[in-house]
Design goal:
The structure is a single chain. With 484 residues, the protein is of the alpha/beta class. It contains 17 helices and 24 strands. The strands form four sheets. Strands 9-8-7-10-6-11-12-13-14-15-16 form an eleven-stranded mixed sheet, sandwiched between helices. Strands 17-18-22-19-20-21 form a six-stranded mixed sheet, sandwiched between helices. Strands 1-5-4-3-2 form a five-stranded mixed sheet. The modification N6-carboxylysine is found at residue 220.
Length: 484
Amino acid sequence: MVLEELIKGLKTVSVCGQTDIEITGVNIDSRRIKEGHLFIAQRGTQVDGHKFIPKAIELGAKAVLCEVLPEEKAEGVTYVQVESTEDVAGKVATIFYGDPSRKLKLVGVTGTNGKTTIATLLYNMFRKLGYKCGLLSTVCNYIEDEAVPADHTTPDPIELNYLLSRMVDAGCQYAFMECSSHAIAQKRIGGLDFAGGLFTNLTRDHLDYHKTFENYRNAKKAFFDQLPKTAFAITNADDKNGMVMVQNTKATVKTYSTRTMADFKAKILECHFGGMYLEIDGREVGVQFIGKFNVSNLLAVYGAAVMLGEKPENVLLVMSTLKSVSGRLDPIQSPEGYTAIVDYAHTPDALENVLNAIHEVLEGKGHVITVCGAGGNRDKGKRPLMAQEAVKQSDKVIITSDNPRFEEPQDIINDMLAGLDDQQMKKVVSIVDRREAIRTACMLAQKGDVILVAGKGHEDYQEIKGVKHHFDDKEVLREAMGIK
């Protein structure tokens, strides 16, 4: 594509060089630059992309989009100056890849918990309904059957448009994606055309980045503020921020609830570890999920499918065949008669939801042993809250390492233990080695008990001092149970 076409809709401060040159690729990562590419220099949270302009040119960049022009300009390279490269990166990527989001129906899911489950279930449901689909999620991205590894909850705008364009080329009619607060705040989804948006819930998370809960909430709300009139916005009426999210949206607003009047309603008729019987909008359906929070997730999926034009009875029929997302309330039955559940819960609210779901099934007939930790170099304020939540609903708690990253595991554990009083500490032991912590839980468990291993879910690694070591909670549990 000619550079002039790429930048004609941008408010430029200045342009130095020719604009009739052919651009063969667009990138914000200088390491991915190839001959003929446009390099977009962004000011990141860790490093300033302007520092890598010389490297990008060395690798073959023929044009640079930047906020500050370098003092020394390379011969034969065009420099385009704008006020904010973050604001325009998504627009440039959208143009370069032929505006792929307008060629399929794109649905975004945002909120603290439930994004992965809802986006993945929508992807699985619509494939079972006979459509070609794409998925952009924390666990993995999919273009129909093809798995594309995911590094972030929401890719950067270049990668995002590239993946969407590949979905269009593959004949996808729908794409479902998680929209993280980081991605919204950093305008990674800028320029995309959404057919609909869903809000799950809002609890404390990512305050290491957003600093205040209000900033975090406003980042989520900005997604709905930007939806077009043609889109739908489905929000959780059971969450106190549910209606705040959609108060300024132009989209058609619909609500879902398990507790109050709403457009889409559900209640639990029966619950066991194999699943639940629900009543959704007056129709009964058996599902392979447990927990009230999963009823909310399934309602969001149901509502989105109906808003996308599917018949309610067809949606419920497919819903009855759907299975849990990997690492989300993932059960393993031991030969000794206890159950272990692996879950990604890494916020106080998510931990509360999972433990509630376990107690709903147990009905006081077994003990709960919880193994949990907290991630390093992330919001420290939630650490004592995580420990408090675990103790409140467990008979025994083992505090251990999660992904310590560049912190000392014992320091993270100490931060968690600081939230507990002497009485609560009687329920708690701390074991730094996560493998040993899981083994200990298995040794303590008796027939009818439930072990919850929380925090990592689908992850198959543990990040220590910048290195990812292979570690899979499910593998470790099976090993401890003697299951091959």
